[in-house]
Design a protein that fits this description.
Elements lengths: L7 H21 L2 E6 L3 H12 L1 H8 L3 E7 L5 H6 L3 E3 L2 H6 L5 E4 L7 H10 L3 E4 L2 H18 L3 E2 L10 H8 L5 E7 L2 H13 L3 H11 L7 H4 L2 H15 L9 E2 L7 H9 L2 E12 L2 E12 L11 E8 L3 E8 L3 H17 L31 E11 L4 H12 L3 E6 L7 H5 L3 E8 L2 E2 H12 L9 E5 L4
Parallel strand pairs: 1-2, 1-4, 2-3, 4-5, 5-6, 8-10, 10-17
Antiparallel strand pairs: 7-9, 7-11, 9-10, 11-12, 13-15, 13-16, 13-17, 14-15
């Protein structure tokens, strides 16, 4: 007796049975991974995939196997212990028809960019921890991925083990993101934390960070803010739906932060943190990385050591804070494996229905401009070295008044161990000024005019302040 055509439930049941039969081999076949790079993070990915294989299969619906890894001599024993085939032919790996997903954990532009584009053209999905590559070349990579119908995932590229990409791109998809601020470089945060808690000098703490392996022999990317700027570029794009624009980020490092400023900030109730800040304004986007005074009562002010944290302000949910380890083999490997699972789940999905790389549909990205530093709006910490005699501060305050800059607080330190005669000779003392919210262009004008006063040392320290309300 045939199946009635007017029985939809039975028709659907038969269709599912036929589909299962036709696709059973594909469903049962493990997904093969190729690891480009088998250093700290690459080994972390491999260890997680092997150790948690059963749990991962339950989540993904299919087994996931590391088929091959590009290994230098020091990683060969680890690969062998995990049963992973090794190779030094990277081009062959990204062209191997038996490999479904390429995990790029090499870092740098060359040869990573060429290999990723080759993998995409060979129809392979890509997971990468390479924040510099995404920040600088991401627009090109995503264009290629759309053309060839593959996924490029990059959760491990930002904030290590914190799932901040998914949180902003998917968890907050119903919100309009107003701003975000993050401690997104653990090395810089370790240095500033040590300076604040122990009164140490920058150079001493940097040397310790290098000895502990937190900082590279050449620490420029970490302490000068370049690493954080790469990550901020990515976060801003998925938060605001703008193209990746690393070249427009205002970047300041922490190498000029002095112990005195850390101490004065604490005396005034603030902590100095190296923040990446992205703010959506009606006239444009602020993208900036710099040392920042934040009130000590804020949760972000109390993130210490090598930990990372990102505070996101959205219109519907309000403020949300994401905290965790920003680097390391298994924390970063955890994010990479989560991306692998997402890709496996989406293997049979129509490319047009997948989550967009930068959260917004590619043809709906905003052309809102990235603002120059002159247009930034912030409060400011200024430290002057002023002669300790009558009339000096009146001149300084006159400049602020003329420019319409309001002062929130003044801290003037007493000269140490001097007598009246020395005071008459023009002993100088540090004076700390905190302004209210003002456009940065006006602050720069004030600094220029104040530095021209005969009673003020030309070296004036300026740090931005954020309340993070």
């Amino acid at each position: 007796m045939g199946t009635p055509l007017n029985n939809p439930a039975r028709i659907i049941q038969l269709w599912k049975q036929m589909s299962l039969s036709e696709n059973q081999e594909t469903q049962l076949k493990p997904v093969n991974i190729g690891l480009l790079g088998f250093g700290t993070v690459g080994q972390g990915v491999a260890h997680i995939l092997v150790r948690n294989a059963k749990e991962i299969e339950r989540r993904a619906g299919r087994g996931i196997v590391v088929k091959q890894a590009s290994v230098r001599s020091r990683g060969a024993d680890t690969a062998a212990s995990l049963g992973i085939e090794t190779t030094d032919d990277l081009a062959a790996m990204v062209a191997d028809p038996d490999i479904d997903i390429i995990c790029e954990m090499m870092g740098g532009d060359t040869p990573a960019l060429e290999l990723i584009l080759s993998a995409i053209k060979n129809g392979k999905h890509v997971i990468t921890a390479n924040k510099a590559l995404i920040a600088v070349h991401g627009n090109t990579i995503f264009d290629a991925a759309r053309e060839y119908g593959v996924i490029v995932a990059f959760e491990p590229a930002v904030a290590g083990g914190i799932p901040i990409i998914k949180a902003v791109r998917e968890g907050l998809a119903g919100n309009r993101i107003l701003w975000l601020a993050g401690i997104i470089n653990g090395t810089g945060n370790f240095i500033l934390s040590e300076m604040a808690s122990k009164g140490r000098e920058f150079a001493d703490v940097l040397a310790e960070a290098q000895a502990l392996g937190y900082a590279e022999a050449d620490p420029e990317f970490d302490v000068e803010g370049i690493d954080a700027a790469h990550k901020l570029t990515i976060l801003a794009s998925i938060a605001f739906g703008i193209p990746l624009q690393f070249d427009k980020v205002c970047i300041e490092g922490i190498s000029n932060i002095e112990r005195d400023d850390v101490a004065y900030a604490q005396e005034l109730g603030y902590r100095i943190k190296h923040l990446g800040i992205a703010r959506h304004r009606s006239d444009g986007i602020e993208l900036r990385v710099h040392p920042t005074l934040i009130p000590e009562a804020r949760l972000l002010a109390n993130v210490d050591g090598v930990m990372n944290a990102v505070l996101v302000q959205a219109d519907a949910v309000g403020p949300t804070l994401y905290y965790g380890p920003g680097a390391g083999a298994e924390p970063t490997g955890s994010s990479a494996v989560a991306d692998v699972i997402d890709v496996v789940r989406a293997l049979t999905t129509d490319p047009e229905q997948r989550v967009p790389h930068l959260a917004f549909q590619y043809d709906a990205l905003s052309d809102l401009p990235v603002l120059s530093s002159d247009a930034f709006e912030s409060a400011y910490y200024l430290r002057l070295q002023a002669e300790d005699k009558p009339g000096v501060m009146a001149e300084v305050m006159g400049i602020f008044g003329t420019l319409g800059i309001s002062i929130e607080a003044i801290l003037q330190k007493e000269p140490a161990d001097v007598n009246a005669a020395e005071l008459n000779d023009g002993v100088s003392v540090p004076v700390i000024l905190l302004t209210r919210l003002v456009r940065e262009g006006l602050i720069q004008q004030a600094i220029e005019q104040i530095s021209n006063l005969q009673t003020i040392d030309k070296h004036i320290v300026m740090l931005r302040m954020e309340t993070l309300d």
